[in-house]
What does this fold into?
Amino acid sequence: MNDNESLDLRQVMRHWATGVTVVTSFDGQRRHGMTVSSFTSVSLTPPWVLVSIQRDSQTHQVILQSKVFGITVLSINQMAVSDCFAGRDDCEYTDRFAGLETFSLATGSPFIIGGLAFMDCRLVNTSDAGTNTLFIGEVIAVRAGSDDPPLLYYDRGYRRLSE
It folds into this structure.
């Protein structure tokens, strides 16, 4: 695929509406996270989920080191959290968790209070996928969170569900 075809694909993919998550990890020394919309359930038995993470990201390195990751499903009230963990504003070079309330479940991965749902995962498989790595994790702990509407992303902007 040449550069023009890549741009065409990017333009077409903007028409796919997704929820927004923050994927986090903690390797005992550093914690990091990033906004991820490439997230899906793989299996209920065993309970596996998949996230796609850019190989050149800090989050990728922390997940490889720790072999664990957490997923916070963001609510409509967490647009600023999504922007920060996407590296927008000044959050790329600062502590993305600064000013946020967090908690952990089984693995030590941080979860962001205010999210809709939380999944704590142990890494079970990886697969190279272009510039990304597909991380498959076994969900070992879950918690429900806020009852707010979900944060949605469509055509380079945040959206909300309508009833």
Q: What stands out?
A: The CA atoms of residues 21 and 36 lie 5 Å apart.
